[in-house]
Each structure stands twice: as C-alpha cells, then as structure tokens.
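Notebook entry, structure prediction.
Reason for the run: the old model in the group folder had no record of what sequence produced it. Starting over properly, with the input documented here first.
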Amino acid sequence: MAALAPPVAAIRVAVRRAMAGLPASGPVLVACSGGADSLALAAAAAFVAPRTGGTAGLVTVDHGLQEGSARRAEAVARWAERAGLAPVDVVRVQVAGRPGGPEAAAREARYQALTEVAGRHRAVALLTGHTRDDQAETVLLALARGAGPRGLAGMPPRRDLAGTPLVRPLLEVGRLETRAACLALGLTPWEDPHNLDPAYARSRIRADVLPALVRSLGPGVLDNLARTARLTAADNEFLDELAGKALTGARHPDGGLAVKVLADLAPAIRGRVLRAWAHELGAPPAALSYRHVVALETLVTAWRGQRATYLPGGLRVLRRADRLVSEEPGG
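New structure, fully documented this time:
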C-alpha cells in the first residue's frame, strides 16, 4: 500500500479539524472554482466527511467573465459527482452592473450565490479554499492601504455568512501544498488567468511582492505574516469586547451617545465605539472608512461648533450640547 502523500494528509487533517463540532443535520458545501486550492479542499472533504458521520457537497460559481467559464463549471460539477460529493450545484451569476470594481463586484455576486445555495440545501457550513498564502497577501494589502488592526487581522478562520458558518480550513496550509496534493491525487487544477493579471493589486502582490519578500527574508515570511493576522485577530476580539461594553455605557438617556463618556475613553476603544455605533445607525461596513471614524472623533475631541459629519448610507451625525445624535439629511 502506497504511503499517503504528506500534503494530502495535511489537508485532510485541516478539514477534519474544521468539520469537528459541526452538526450532522445538513451537508458542508465546498466552494470550488476548480483551482488547486479549492480542488484539493473538495477532494479532502469528499474523503473526510463520510468517515466522520457527515456529508459534503460542492458549489461552483460561474461568473461568466471568461470564455468557456460555463464548460469549466460543468466539468468541476461532473468531477464532484464522481468524487462522491452531494449535493452538487452550478450557479451562474451576473457581475456586470454591481457597484465597486470588478474584483469587489465578482466577490459580492459569489457570496450572494453561496448564501442562497447554502440556505436551499440547509448547509451546516460553507468551506472555502483560502490558504496561508492568501492570508499573507491580505495582510500585505492591508498594510499598503493603511487599514489598521482590523485589516491586519486578515481573513478569520470562521465567520457568519447570512446565518451559515463560512469556514476556511486551509489558512495554515501553503499554496504549494495544495498544488502538490492535486498532483498526488491525479487532479488537474484550473489556472485562473485573473490571478496573473497585473491590473489587480492582489495579482501584483502574488507575482512580485511576495516572491521578493521570500527571496530577501526567506520562506518563513509567509508564516510570519499569517501569524501576524492570528495575533492581531485575538487582540481585536478583546478590544471589540471592551468596546461593546463601552458603547452600552456611552448611550445617552435622551438618545445618541454621551460626549463626556466618549471623551474619557482610550482612543483605541473610542474609535471602535464610534465605528460600531455608525454600523448601528445603518452605515454599510464596507463603505465606512477610517476618515469617517476620525470625523466622528473630531465631534468629541476637537469640537469647535462645526457642522454635521456625513456617513455612508445617507446618514449624518452632529453634536448637540452633551451628546452625538444622528439625523436624516434635511432633518
């Protein structure tokens, strides 16, 4: 009996850990594009699920952005059925006309489709093939954009997606390992040309920046960047907990937030309180930026009688004596 290839074993162990504790009331669904990362993940899920009392299916999203994308999606679905995955779904989405750039629009369409499929099949989790390399790229992009601790935390191993857990089992597995696993299993992954397109910032990070860092600092830099994300995420969780309590204490009896309470908070907590409150008011999280939070802080710490601060979502916040309040435009 041939020995199991170490990359295959590592990915199966990662999937087994990710699936531990999930209920058996429905399938886990693997989001699979046919690339090496998600293909290796899907193969591992097909092996692990029936051996742990669960079931695993697959969903592949056809964005319709490239020639032959429909044929490729159908090929992934046929492979999944042969591999024993069920249910298997091919979902076609419309990317054009959505807000944001092409990457953001495709991501929004993809996650909307994944949410709908998960709900239809009553999936207990969605698994995606993001690797340690993807995490390192995310941290570098966050650094370049000045995103702060929330950006440096990278992608969480698990988050809620409209009521379904979205789980990333491979965040401690390298991209080279997923490719090696596919080779060992006789799988031929699809190479997405968008991953090499210099028009995209992530592609430039992948093709130029990370290889340069590895050459200069050694391969350990990938682990170090991923570790930075894990450590920062743990700090963020604690600070967010403190901010949640501080937000409760800052609520004014007449509505809004009490300026005096906000002013006495540590800056790291105050910024998080104001961000959380802006989300409560209806500001879209993706559109709420650092400058918006700074503008809110100015109403607390540098009040000079200035006018309202405008937030995404058609909101405005102003200071009235000892509190911050929100008003509809024209109110």
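Summary: The mean pLDDT is 91.
The old model has been moved to the deprecated folder.
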